[in-house]
Amino acid sequence: MASSSLGSRLVACLLNVSEAHRKDLVETVAKAALYNAEGVRREGTTVLNIFNDHDYNRSVITIVASIDSIREAVLSACEKACGLIDMRAHSGVHPCMGAVDLIPIYPLGEDVGVEDCATEARAVAEGLTERVQGTSAFLFGWADSPLQRGLAQRRKEMGWFKKTPDMQAIRPDMGPQPQKRFGLTGVGASPYVMNCNVTIDTQDVAMGRSIAAAIRESAPGGLPGVQVLALPHQGAVEIACNVESVKGSPTGDTSAGEPWPCFSIGGQPYRHAPASLITARVAELAGRHGVGAVGTALVGFTPCECRGLAELALSQGIAEFWKEQGRIRM
């Protein structure tokens, strides 16, 4: 992707909130990132996408701004979400622990490093627990200094994968013991993480789990950077993948002739598994059970798409870009 002064300091936050049934509420949260309390637009900030999943009762809001502006945009959205979402009334098949469940911050521009994002992530966690009394947070990735534990490890430590986590046993990094209304929020920074979900035509979650176990990074022959859950979804099973960017050049990495997408952070090359490879691997494994893969969904964008669309939105002064995607082409 060609660099530009507009994009050189951009970062993205893929804000995960525990609500999707009330889409107007989620849009209200997104707009809080864009406008201050008086309704004045925050310059240099855009919301590229809002992904709602009804079964999961979870939405992902893609906020992009300069590293200098991201903190206030994200905190304002989080404040609004905490005022509108009550975890005591939440239900959904996707694991979650917080009204604002996840705040990851990723560098997009060449003048921003992961450590810069980690500084902002720690400030967001501190700001959230100060502004919204009763909220609690744990840190992951580069924000979890000095250990830099990954999101999956930190979630496991916090009991995120359990059906009913023991909130009294949790020791958050910031804020008080988690309260039932707000729950617990994960806040961190890392190279970009893409979300790629592949649906297989079965209701057999155990089969889905066996496929997930085979493709995740930790498995022999697994895909680098891929973390996976198998969840019931719209009468089928979804293989839900977090696709982490991994350091190194893409030499030798191909998927049906398609090279692994690559980008750089601070001059260091990174790459990520393409959606086509994940889909092909899931389809191959499902096919051994006589089951087909029936669709793939990207939650948001690839890293390069995210920066390109953000530059387009900001150059044209479009704050609520998610409303414009149908008519604007790169």
Which residue ranges are poorly predicted, with pLDDT under 50 across at least 5 consecutive positions?
none
Proportion of residues in helical segments: 25-40%
Largest sheet: 6 strands, mixed
Structural class of the secondary structure composition? alpha+beta
Describe the structure.
Helices cover 27% and strands 28% of the residues. It contains seven helices and 15 strands. It has a six-stranded mixed sheet with strand order 2-3-1-4-6-5, sandwiched between helices. Strands 8-9-7-15 form a four-stranded antiparallel sheet. Strands 10-14-13 form a three-stranded antiparallel sheet, with no helix packed on it. β11 and β12 form a beta hairpin. α1 runs antiparallel to α2, α2 runs parallel beside α3 and α5 crosses α6. The longest helix is centred in the middle third of the chain and has 18 residues. It is globular. The two termini are 12 Å apart. The mean pLDDT is 92.
Care to give the gist of this entry?
The protein is built from seven helices and 15 strands. The chain is of the alpha+beta class and about 325 residues long.
